[in-house]
Design a protein that fits this description.
single chain; alpha+beta; 3-stranded antiparallel sheet; 6 helices; 16 strands; globular; DNA/RNA_pol_sf; RVT_2; Retrotransposon protein, putative, Ty1-copia subclass
Length: 276
């Protein structure tokens, strides 16, 4: 079997000129709708001694485990490299869950026969609140008529900003802590809540999470609470976690990355996968 890798466009112009332009246009509109819905910015006249930072579109194809396209995704990303430390950002850190933590949690799930659900948070980084004054230019194609001279003052975080992962984590962290969860000693992105006859574990990784527990009713209750606060897609039983495919059987879980290896090979051009 021959696999031909179809690369994502690297620029807005390339996306609009590609054969998949209708899909990318739909993805862009979905992103703009999310930004507007979350009141991410407001249009104002640029204040004196302030300069708006630029932005660009990033295009990605979300693939299913079998390599077929599940979703076209577009992200409006600020050019965070233009930010100045001490002026429009002060603190930053990367929101990364150690892969060893994921493996341990899957092992715990297998040992105790837990339920494990996977949830994607749509435009997760747009949920963070900003403390600094940051301005970006209006994007070509979405300039508000009659207000083309104005700029967007960011109220919420935007992908690409230095502080965005930190702001999203703080928002999610406060949400869980105020709802009775505790941060585990081993990892600041793993939370646990004890009930009388059950418990729930939540592991946050970038813009997704795993929810593990012994009681489906309790898990549904937690998911309902999170859905009321964030725009999320419930993937139900976990299938692919950070490029690791999970398959449950009578003895526990099998973890594989064959689909990830195939995708990596495709990145280098046409590959005869069956020969490997």
């Amino acid at each position: 079997m021959t696999y031909i890798f179809n690369k994502e466009p690297q620029t807005y112009k390339a996306a609009m000129e590609s054969s998949e332009a209708p899909y990318w246009k739909e993805a862009i509109q979905s992103e703009i709708n999310s930004i507007v819905h979350k009141n991410t910015w407001k249009l104002i006249d640029i204040p004196l001694r302030h300069k708006p930072i630029g932005h660009k579109w990033i295009f990605k194809k979300k693939l299913r485990p079998d390599g077929t396209i599940e979703k076209y995704k577009a992200r409006l990303v600020a050019k965070g490299y233009c930010q100045k430390e001490g002026q429009d950002f002060f603190d930053t850190y990367s929101l990364v869950t150690r892969i060893t933590s994921i493996r341990i949690l899957i092992a715990i799930t297998a040992i105790h026969n837990l339920i494990i659900h996977q949830i994607d948070v749509k435009t997760a980084f747009l949920n963070g609140e900003l403390d600094e004054e940051i301005y970006i230019q209006q994007h070509k194609g979405f300039v508000v008529k009659g207000q083309d001279h104005k700029v967007c003052k960011l109220v919420k975080s935007l992908y690409g900003l230095k502080q965005t992962p930190k702001q999203w984590h703080e928002k999610f962290d406060n949400t869980l802590l105020t709802n009775g969860f505790q941060i585990t000693n081993c990892h600041k992105y793993v939370y646990v809540k004890q009930y009388k006859n059950s418990f729930v574990i939540i592991c946050l990784y970038v813009d997704g999470m795993l929810i593990m527990g012994t009681n489906m009713d309790v898990i549904n209750q937690i998911e309902k609470m999170l859905h009321s606060l964030f725009d999320m897609k419930d993937m139900r039983e976990a299938n692919v976690i950070l490029s690791i495919r999970t398959q449950k059987n009578s003895n526990g879980y099998i973890l594989t990355q064959s689909h990830y290896i195939e995708k990596t090979l495709k990145n280098f051009g046409t590959m005869m996968i069956d020969q490997l």
